[in-house]
Design goal:
Number of helices: 19
Radius of gyration: 23 Å
Structural class: alpha/beta
Shape: globular
Oligomer: single chain
Strand order of the largest sheet: 7-6-5-8-9-10
Strand content: 5-15%
Amino acid sequence: MTAEEAKKMALNYHSGCRPGKIAVNSTKPCDTADDLSLAYTPGVAQPCLEIKNDIKQVWRYTSRGNMVAVVSDGTAVLGLGNIGPEAGLPVMEGKAVLFKHFADIDAVPLCLGKVFNDRNRTDAAKLIDAVEHLEPTFGGINLEDIAAPACFEVERTLKQRMNIPVFHDDQHGTAIISLAAIINGLQVVGKKIEDCRFVVNGAGAAGLACSRFYLAAGAKLENMMLCDINGVLHTGRTDLSEEQKLFAKDTPLRTLSEAIKGADIFLGFSAPDCVSADMVKSMNRDAIVFAMANPTPEIFPDVAIAAGAALAGTGRSDFPNQINNVLGFPGVFRGALDVRAKDINEEMKLAASQALAELATMEFPEDVKEILKKAYPADAARGVFDTPAGIRPDMVIPKPFDPRVVPHVARKVAEAAVQTGVAQLPIDDFDAYEAELTARLKRR
């Protein structure tokens, strides 16, 4: 398929007979005069009065408990940059599609304008004010494509002020998935996370959040070196944000090619083709390379493997080990909503990573195998889904269309929410919860 053909196909998909990718559907009948009197006046007054008398009844009588706002200002759209809220709307509609398809969560895309400073960048205070006022309508807030460094202040402040989960997927989604891949990748190469030297290229929202998350999982700050477009984050630089200063090193190293020598793990959140085969050759034995720039990675996985990497992954679906956020946010929000969590905390995120890592080691049941063979015919032809339980270098994380992903992640996230005291609804039997959720999603 040529680039022009691909462009035409994408535009036709989004326009078609009805513009866009989402619509609103009623969950109750409205076919008769009696239905109408219940859906609106006079019947609607009854739940209104119940909620007025006890605000917690909003969860019983409205769709709020299954409703997430996908909020963006369009300042950092993946691969496109600061394109504005209108141009970012197709992405947010797409996120709503994934929420519904994978986790049966109703999501509303909200692309906000007039939240910018005089340089057309995010004004954190304006965006915080706009989002904070959405709380009565939604069970959770998914922040998306908001540029650094404002995104850090926006999420941090909203988490403090709101009593529903606030989750910036560009930061934490990638962190959850990549850590799962690291957990299993280290099992393959026989190394421990606390002994590994990390080099992270890209010190924006994703790179910084992922690096902090790896520290929470046991990586050592002294073993972690970050680079951005200007090279190594070192203590002599005067252009670093407060978030970047945590990772600044007192070192003579200045370039990515210098920093990567002897590294055990490379993670890319940056730009295409910025890592060479020679750079991979300079890494430590049994190196792990996760090059996640999209659509063109920092180095293609086959080149990295040929240069000596033990395993490699990208953000793309046409190579093994796809590190894709769709493995994370549907299950994370499903679990958080089902226990009515007040927050998505570090323990819940770590639980999601562990759930994904665990799932990648399991054998494929026959019904799952059939689903995956249809979704991934090339992998099926290579016998990927016919292998016994265990970790293999070309599949250290599950596939997005594996129907076990959302139920298993949701179960582990809900458990962590209960254990850490942020859950407001109890789940007495988590095995039963996972089984019921599996059946529910299968029926869709």
